[in-house]
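Notebook entry, cofactor series.
This is the third protein in the set we're modelling with a bound small molecule. For this one the ligand is copper (II) ion. I'm keeping the input format identical across the series so the outputs can be compared line by line later. Sequence and SMILES below, as received.
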Amino acid sequence: MRYSTLLAAASLVATGAAHGGVGTYTIGGTVYKGWQPYQSSSGQKSIQREYSTFDPLVIADLGKVQIRCNNAGALGTGLSASIAAGSKIKATWTQWTHRPAAIMVYMAKCPSSGCNSWDGSGKVWFKIDHEGLISGTQNAGIWAGDAIVDTLVWESTIPASLAPGEYLIRHDLLALHQRNNPQFYPECAQLTVTGNGDTVPPSSILVSFPGAYSASDPGVDFNIDGEAAKVATSYPIPGPAVWDGTGNAPQPDPTTLIQVPTPTPTPAQPSCEVAKYGQCGGIGFGGCTVCAAGSTCRANGDYYSQCV
Ligand SMILES: [Cu+2]
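Returned structure with ligand:
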């Protein structure tokens, strides 16, 4: 036992500063590189909002703006990933080491001015996915965090009924390995949702960050080593229920109601055209490289160029 105790202590030291963060997002066959927290922020562009470390936020941070997107108010860098409602987005963590952990995934509809200059404040967030304890007891069972330690991946589906538009997506890992010291690891990215969805979540289910979590929530005020955790076979995941995909029809933008459509002569069409925010280049990319009028093709690293 002494050997394994020493081994456990050594591994704690080795991974103590490991923590983690979402490094890439994959939609269909396209990989979108996230923010690189340990590289200079100067000149970085990604669909993901800037954040500075893999370190956790803790209970003392629950009232701070950092609990929203893991930064103190950084906005977008001009990029956004296109995804059809009903399709899947795969988050891949650069590293993750904590097995007892819950995953929570939220979205928020950006204002009509778009996501880039919007900070995600207010009661605007709805949950699209979560998973906590999968089997066994809280103390010794299998958690969503086990899957992420083993694969570094969590895949979620954008609700099929969700109205098209600009959204933030927020992945939040909640590590529970330390008794009474839950650790939060949120990161946000910008999405352009396409499709024929016609629903936005009702305001009654929306939450804010900070605000959605409290230190007294049973899933936050949590002792994984306690006697209760040795017998409990379910875990109360913090935050709201996952949105069921039903709710209010989106409000029509009043400015569109009074706009009189102006007939425009049809210009000669290029042989192909990439819609704004679509991919237009990068290593290995074999598709169309002509951006729609009003947008230009810009490189976001070697593997992805986007019409912006
Ligand atoms: Cu950690």
